[in-house]
Amino acid sequence: MKLRTTLAVVALVTLYSTGALAVGDAVKGKAYFATCGACHGAAAEGMEALNAPKLAGQESWYIVRQLQNFKKGIRGANPLDTYGLQMAPMSQLLADDQAMEDVAAFIKTLAK
Ligand code: HEC
């Protein structure tokens, strides 16, 4: 029993430190989103003219993963990926995973 508890605590701490359980702060996220809204729309409704997709209604975990991918150069790094190349530098505005969680938390507050 004691070992199981210890293992559970270790697992939780590991998850937390890897960011898997990070909690986003929507208030901070709102400030970050000011720039994003220029392309994605103030309510994250998307803007086809700028090829910027709707973000409202998307799962936070997916938004964070895409932002990480853009930042790491997994997405939006190929010269043929015209629109991805426009988004990639925007991900650099978010300093770390916490900032990504924060912006995703704000997007979650917007109408789907
Ligand atoms: C200069 C315009 C522009 C700005 C500013 C911008 N984006 Fe984007 N974003 C795009 C474009 C264009 C795409 C589509 C990329 C593609 O087609 O792969 C995109 C894609 C995304 C995606 C992937 C959506 C999906 O469904 O896979 C996310 C998440 C995202 N942006 C979040 C943000 C956030 C958060 C910010 C602010 C920090 C931001 N964007 C700022 C243009 C922008």
What topology does this entry show?
Blueprint: H1 2-17, H2 26-40, H3 60-72, H4 82-91, H5 97-108
Bound molecules: heme C (HEC).
Which structural traits does this protein have?
mainly alpha; 112 residues; binds heme C; Cytochrome Bc1 Complex, Chain D, domain 2; single chain; globular
Structure description:
The protein is mainly alpha-helical. It has one domain: Cytochrome c-like domain (Cytochrome Bc1 Complex, Chain D, domain 2), CATH 1.10.760. It contains 5 helices and no strands. Helix 2 packs across helix 5, helix 3 packs across helix 4 and helix 3 packs antiparallel against helix 5. The relative contact order is 0.19. The mean pLDDT is 89. The structure holds heme C. Heme C binds next to helix 2, helix 3 and helix 4.
User: Which small-molecule species are bound to the chains here?
Assistant: heme C
* Average pLDDT, all residues: 89
- Ends: how far apart? 44 Å
Beta content comes to: under 5%
Strand elements, count: 0
Helix/strand-derived class? mainly alpha
CATH architecture group name: Orthogonal Bundle
Helix percentage: 55-70%
Q: CATH first level: which class?
A: Mainly Alpha
The CATH topology name reads Cytochrome Bc1 Complex, Chain D, domain 2
The named CATH superfamily: Cytochrome c-like domain
Q: Per the principal axes of the C-alpha atoms, what is the gross shape?
A: globular
Order of helices and strands: HHHHH
Please, how many domains? 1
Tally of alpha and pi helices: 5
| Major beta-sheet overview | none
Low-confidence stretches: none
